Amino acid sequence: MTHAALAASGGASQCGWRTCIRRDAGACKRAQRSLAWSLADPPGSACSQGRATIAAADAAVVADGLTRIFDDATAVADVSFEVPPGSIFGIIGPSGSGKTTTLRMVMGSIAPTKGSVRVLGDEPLRFRRQTRERIGYMPQQFVLYPDLTVSENVDFVGSLFGLFTWRRRGRVKDVLRLLDLWDVRKRRAKDLSGGMQRRLELACALVHEPRLLILDEPTAGLDPLLRLTVWKELHRIRNAGVTILVTTQYVGETEECDQVALISEGSLIALSDPNGLRRAAFGGDVVEITTKATFDASVLEKGPQVHEIRQTGLREIRATVDDAGEGLPELVDAINAAGGDVEAAREARPTFDEVFAELVERHRRELAQVPGEPRDPEPPVEQVSLPPAPDPNAGPLPGPPSVAADATSASEPEEVPHGAA
Amino acid sequence: MGLLKALNRVLALVGKELVEVMRRPAAIVSLVLGPFLVLAIFGLGYQGIRSDLRTIVVVPGNQALPTNPAQYQDFAGPGIRIVNVTTDEAAAKAELAGDAVDLVVVIPADARADFEAGRQAALRVVMNQADPVQANYASFLAETLAADVNRELFKQAAAEGKGYVVSVGGQQLASIPPEVIASPIKAAMENIAPITPGIVGFFGPAALALILQHMCIALVALSVVRERRSGAMDLFRVSPVNPIELILGKVLSYGFLGGVVAFLSMLLLVGVLGVPVLGSLALVAAVIGLLLLASLGLGLLISVVSDSERQAVQLALLALLASMFFSGFILPIAEFTQPVQVAAQVLPVTHGIRLLQDLLLRGSIIHVWQVGALAAIAAVLLATSWVLLRREFRPT
Question: Bridge partners of B126?
Fold first, then answer.
């Protein structure tokens, strides 16, 4: 389903690519401008399965089984992904997880030990100059010239990427205005703040109007406000039709990407859109229910929508359902039927730190499995042993177990009115 | 279009290098104006006059010889300054040991008697020199002094009409003047060089060649290493720039800077220090151009083999030291052993010095092969740098 079709249909609720839906008008205008790309739902998303997929020929980057071994150490192992054109594709993982190595293979700086990659249709190791001119690159560190002014730096990089003077002048002005650097264009790069230096690098990567922008940790070392500014710029650039391949070690920035490849210890552990990742981590939507009085969740049975029920407090229950829209009412009904009285019910949105931790942990478990041996059984419904009924004359109730409390507090609850649920 | 874009990239690199250098006043002072000032101070400050050796004359006590230094000064001539005449040899040596004087000349007890008896009398010259150059100079002056004493003895004897010099082959020579009898042959020096050699005139072109080489090596080596360290080289690797364009950018920008410094230095040498330009200015410019090219090649080579600024600086200094010792700047190349002489030919400045001295001071190039050698050095160094840089650009 293309963006345009998605917008036209209005039936976006089934689409896993919620980022796309939220961006509605802007995203669809972009899609209309580049219909030729036939941008489809990302692979791995709910609506992509069995429906439209991105043809490899159309993808800006196609990595297939990328592996890089340095001496004895495997930096990247069998990583495959496709970057849809006109999207922000994030490679996310902690420091040393293999993000930059992957990026360098995409850029052609290093050769893969195994596997292949194609960028804008070319193999990076044999990039033609014309292909290089269509790629913008922003390295992880500030590599520009501190003694040159802001505009001189941008002008220099523009020349390197094939812009002649008559076109460069206008482009330098445009890009500096776009990134709010026009007022400091005569300031030397060394006199800029860290955030401005990152924006200057971004300006340099953009000056020649690349079709593919490759950014290596553009937000590293920036304060949260500046990080937001950088992402705002990236969205604006993406909306102008540029494909962005970006790495970041801030897991929370997953939300900013249209599609994400999670990398840990050199391996791709998940590839999906942000909501798809959440679902992949927890097996569905996560809902939280609070009852008015103590309620024993062990009396509840899993239904067609409900996969996992977990007692997280005396009055708190957390469950994984297929779809929050259908599963939450089903669960509320079940609690009511079991004699409980629901005070609040909501869809929880686990933070991407939690999502990432869950996926990494699962990946490690899978790696620990000896081939041929049966996998670990699905974790059972976690139960919290209930204390005796509280004495009304006693003091305050003891708190819930600490793990559950942490998990709950780390979540980003999305309050859903009881009635709506 | 491809060629135009390549030109566009090269010009961008040239502009970037020039602006970067201009934005660093300290770099301009230390690497561009510094050498220029050193040359000016050298030319204006060097007197070319060796100070006289302070000398004590020890006369034998039994001959009642005069003890007035002025009388001996006339006799000793230039280069030696008689500060005292004494009969106490031990005291004179003590002063020599304390570095109060440079020489002690001990007059033989009775030279004339020895001469008449058919023996050579020894005129002892005592010095306390660790510097071989100074020791050679003192020895030369002592030899000259001994010859002068001999001549004086002959003159005195001839004037007194002694029979031992009045017949040669049976011919009476009494009518010949005593000074001719004492010195029948005298040296008459003639220099066929077009100009009278002077210290500044001779060393000026050599200093210019050395300065240009060092400036080029240091500037280009540091520039590339800095770019590698900052990560700019990674940007080049993923950009459409290729190693040839990068090298061209460096060579043109720093070649231009070197040309400006060479032009200013030539103005100083010719206009202020009075160094003549007997040869063609076009040839001088061509030789300087080749020297700059070869030096930039050496700088590029240093830059591609260095992994840090410190290493690049060390290698640049090593090149400077080697150039000072082995290029003929201070010591003649012919005084080294054959292998070192061959190795010296690898240094661009070896040929640069000789070619510039020939062109400026003699009016023509004497060893034309040196032009070819300089061009070959430039070609080999630039080609090697290109190969190594190309390897650095390749995916790892």
Answer: B104
Contact yes or no for A145 and B20 at CB 8 A:
yes
Cα A120 to chain centroid distance, Å, stands at 22
Amino acid letter, residue B178: P
Tell me the C-alpha distance between B306 and B388, whole Å: 12
One-letter amino acid of A54? I
Retrieve residue A271's tokens: 């590839």
ipTM over 0.90: no
Lowest mean pLDDT among A119-123, A326-330, A394-398: A394-398
Report the gap between the CA of B389 and the closest CA in chain A (Å). Answer: 14
Coil/strand/helix, residue A92: strand
∠ CA B6-B11-B17, nearest 5°, is: 130
pTM for the predicted model, two decimal places: 0.71
Interchain contact, B396 vs A125, CB within 8 Å: no
What digits encode the pLDDT tens for the residues B8-36? 899 999 998 888 888 887 777 776 677 77
Torsion angle, alpha carbons of B94, B98, B100, B106, to 10: 30
| DSSP one-letter string for B324-389 | HHHSSSSS-GGGS-HHHHHHHTTSHHHHHHHHHHIIIIISS-S-THHHHHHHHHHHHHHHHHHHHH
Best mutation target, B3, B13, B235, to test chain A (most A CBs within 10 A): B235
Q: Which helix (H) or strand (E) holds A319?
A: strand A316-321
CB contact under 8 A, A109 and B8: no
Structure tokens at B169: 């082959």
Residue A242 has pLDDT above 80, yes or no: yes
- Nearest Cα to Cα of residue A260 among A14, A44, A23: A44
Picking from A76, A107, A145 by the largest number of B CB atoms within 10 A of its own CB, the best residue to mutate is A145
Q: What is the mean pLDDT of residues B317-331?
A: 89
Chain B residue numbers with beta carbons less than 8 Å from the beta carbon of A159 are 8-9, 11-12
Burial class (CB in 10 A: 0-12, 13-18, 19+), B307: exposed
Nearest to A137 among B9, B15, B238 (CB): B238
Rounded Cα gap, residues A82 and A99, in angstroms? 15
Residues of chain B contacting residue A133, judged by C-beta atoms under 8 Å apart = 240
In percent, the amount of chain B with pLDDT more than 70 equals 87
Segment holding A173, helix H or strand E:
helix A165-178
Is the Cα dihedral A401, A406, A407, A413 positive or negative? positive
Q: Which residue has the tokens 């990407």?
A: A257
Q: Within a 10 A sphere around the Cβ of B175, how many other Cβ atoms?
A: 6
Q: Under a CB-based contact definition with an 8 Å cutoff, are residues A195 and A229 in contact?
A: yes
What phi and psi values does residue A305 have, to the nearest 5 degrees? -95, -25
B65 closest CA partner among B110, B101, B95, B105: B110
pLDDT average, residue stretch A363-389? 51
Q: Which of B7, B227, B239, B241 has the highest number of chain A CBs within 10 A, making it the mutation to test binding with A?
A: B239
CA distance B367 to B20: 39
Phi/psi for B163 (5° steps) reads: -75, -15
> Cβ contact (<8 Å) for B23 and A147?
yes
Encode pLDDT of A251-285 as tens digits: 888 889 999 999 988 899 889 998 888 888 888 88
> Which helix (H) or strand (E) element contains residue A77?
strand A73-83
- B24 contacts in A (CB within 8 Å)? 147
Per DSSP, the three-state class of B375 is helix
Q: Are B300 and B380 in contact (CB under 8 A)?
A: no
Averaged pLDDT, B366-377? 95
Residue among B340, B368, B375, B337 at smallest CA distance from B354: B368
Q: How confident is the model at residue B184 (pLDDT cuts 50, 70, 90)?
A: low
Cα B85 → chain centroid: 37
Give me the pLDDT at residue B78, please.
78
Pairwise CA distance, residues B22 & B375, whole Å = 29
The answer to whether the CB of A330 falls within 8 A of the CB of A302 is no
